[in-house]
Amino acid sequence: MKFSRALLTAAAMAAVLPAGSAYAADDDAPGPGVAEYVALGDSWAADATLSQITTAFTPANCVQSAHNYAKQVAAALAVPVFRDATCGGAVTANMTAEQSGPLGTNPPQFDRLTAATDLVTLEIGGNDADLAATVQTCVTPDPAATPCLDKMVVGGVDQMSLNIARARTRVVDTVRGIQARSPHARILLLDYFEGIGLTGGCFPTIPISDPDAIWLGSKLLELHTMLGQVASTTGVEFVDTYDGSAGHDACRPVGTRWVEGLVPFSGNPVGLAVPFHPNQLGADYQARRVLEVLGAS
């Protein structure tokens, strides 16, 4: 996802932790005995925010939340060594290539992995398929218009479905890269939960027509299915956040929705938000699902 200069300025002003600081874990918390945990992924793994950014692990332009799911998991497991490489806008190429922005450079995410790493969470693929950027192009003042369907489905061929299929190979390669660098790690691959429902939108609250909203919802489901297939192919554990998230999409009221809509303001927590990304309730849900898979909930 690309961030405007105004959002990046807000990100810099909103940073809540100094660069290089350690994340405090709960020393009394139970857990499966994880010694070194590394979190990898994009803005949905960073739980991108503009109100509770931390620069403890990444530069401010990564808009990484001080309370994203990875940090919650690290605290719950009392992990002694934790590194959070997640960064807004990341694609699979950023596992081995740095990601630069006006407020700093995030080194290749794989640089945080070591032979001693024994837990890795990974959430990636949405930007490789160009789904995040496509959501913005669906916005329209006309409730009958279908700019996304008109652009992405031509001659009966759905370009986004092709993008998701191509992204599958890249995610498989990413998992193989983790396995090579951290051969003893337990690897958990997360999907993206239901940010847009399958039955329509909520125009004009979110100015996307029902046909385009239904199409976007179906692409999130395709992405979920693809990532589940990657987990099966590579032999890693799949954290299914999609099933169980219905009824918490961006059209729901504050306190119910787990992902924000177009207006860059959240009620959980109250403050600036990144549109179409998890709020704190969404991050908390992701953390619960990871801990359930780990048997530590």
Keywords:
297 residues, alpha/beta, Rossmann fold, five-stranded parallel sheet, two-stranded antiparallel sheet, disordered N terminus
Question: Overview of this structure, please?
Answer:
Helix 3 (69-76) crosses helix 8 and helix 6 packs parallel to helix 7. It is built from eight helices and eleven strands. By secondary structure, it is α/β, with parallel strands linked by helices. The longest helix is centred in the C-terminal third of the chain and has 25 residues, at 210-234. It has a single domain (5-294), classed as SGNH hydrolase (Rossmann fold, 3-Layer(aba) Sandwich). It starts with a helix and ends with a helix. It is globular.
What fraction of residues sit in β-strands?
5-15%
Structural class, by secondary structure, is alpha/beta
User: What's the count of strands?
Assistant: 11
Instruction: Please state the average pLDDT score.
Output: 91
Task: Give the overall shape.
Answer: globular
* Spatial separation of the terminal alpha carbons: 31 Å
